[in-house]
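Hey, I was hoping to borrow your eyes for a little while. I've been puzzling over a protein and I'd love to understand its fold better. The fold is given in discrete form, as structure tokens running alongside the sequence. I'd be grateful if you could look everything over and explain what you see. No rush at all, and the record is pasted right below.
>
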Amino acid sequence: MFTYLPHFCLVRAFTRVLLGTFLITVKAHADVAPHALFAPHVVLQREMPIPIWGKADPGENVTVALDGSTVSAVTDTTGHWIVRLPTRPAGGPFTLTLAGKNRIVLEDVWVGEVWLASGQSNMERQLGLRGNQQPLVNWENEVASADYPQIRHFAVDRKLEDTPQTETKGKWDVCTPLTAPNFTAVGYYFARDLHRELHVAVGIIHSSWGGTPAESWTSQEAIAANAPELIAAQANAVSQYPSKLAAYQAAEPTLLATWNEQVTQAKAAGKPEPGKPSPPADPLKTPKRPACLYNGMIRPLQPFAIRGVLWYQGESNSGSATKYRVLLSTLIKDWRSQWASPDLPFLIVQIAPHRSLPPELREAQLLTWRSTPHTGLIVTTDVGDANDIHPNRKEPVGARLALAARSVAYGQKIVSSGPVFTGFSAEGNRAVLRFTELGGGLVAKDGPLRGFSLSGDGKTFVPADAAIADDTVVVTAANVPTPVAVRYGWANVPDVNLFNAAGLPASPFRSDVP
């Protein structure tokens, strides 16, 4: 059915269509659009030039203003622009304005301290309840009191990419009892303690993914230069995947029939059901492939100005601790290079005790710390869980990270590490161990020293007695008349209690490092 419209109605309707089309066209082609990190409630890094960037029309002049500072840039031929605001002290709230053919006003902007929190599931673990994981100690009381308007959290969108990206998604959340449950727990406790100490705004950019290895977080170029075998292994997995998938599909009916029988038998016996057969993982889709998380979740953050990095990862590299020594140091150098910050503070959380995590992995982290300037090591031997790879005590981890930051990043003369083994001398049947980072003196927490072992031939180690003598530890064993090597906490779940008077634990170690 045709409905007649008077002439003036037709003109008005046509005008609306034209005007709407014009507005849509302008919006699609002219708007200045800042990178996702530049949004309301953002925390910008103090005492450093502040890069701000985004998109607009090629050739468009973009002006950025913050509290009296104004800088401009012309968009390049690809539609990208970047400016750098001058260095400024902490403060806020400010208004950040971006103007080109349009104008964007961002409110509640603060200048303070910004840290990138990254790694796998123990960094990813939120402060609030999550799935079937055990609740974190004291989480409800902490959330109820989490009223810190100058602490903000940006959760980076999870994204796998095989080529470096420039865009991400996310928003800045102000810390309140409503938002805090979604913060990374380790990052929250770190930010809380740092804010209390420095009295400035603290922003946490949280970029983590559970169950991922270090190579996923490292650029392709850095892996190719330092661990090329990982690139080769990925290429091999991709080439073999079609045949593996075809073989599984051919065998699937038989596998499922067998599985159904096993399920029936398990139910009858009151036992757990066996896992269902599944096809092989596509190597082009796994978050464990080299560089994919760097490309999708780290590269898009650059060159946002940050003070340093909090790194809690390693569980997924536990099968090759020696290789992890290379990977972790490579990752640190890579990120420092990509941020053009050769002294970027990098704080490493040592993996907590768990029945599946070998001591060689903690050693790899210890050795990386000792050989890499401007890093910190956070020891967690006293807050692990032998049966849960996600221990529920995150507050001590965040607190120790804050101590390390105060020392490494802010130059405060404080005790930020537990005792550090530097060597030993054999005096008859005694091994006399020396340490730095005494923190007021060595302490055996909760009873006599535990966790030491000695060897007289460098191969067989036996449990040993240990006692503190001034600033040393003296270790003996009845059947080791001449010690040649000593170890401490050398187990998946070490039973250890050497601390310093500042209340910080010593890392597990061995004198016979290969």
Remarks:
- The CA atoms of residues 455 and 461 lie 5 Å apart.
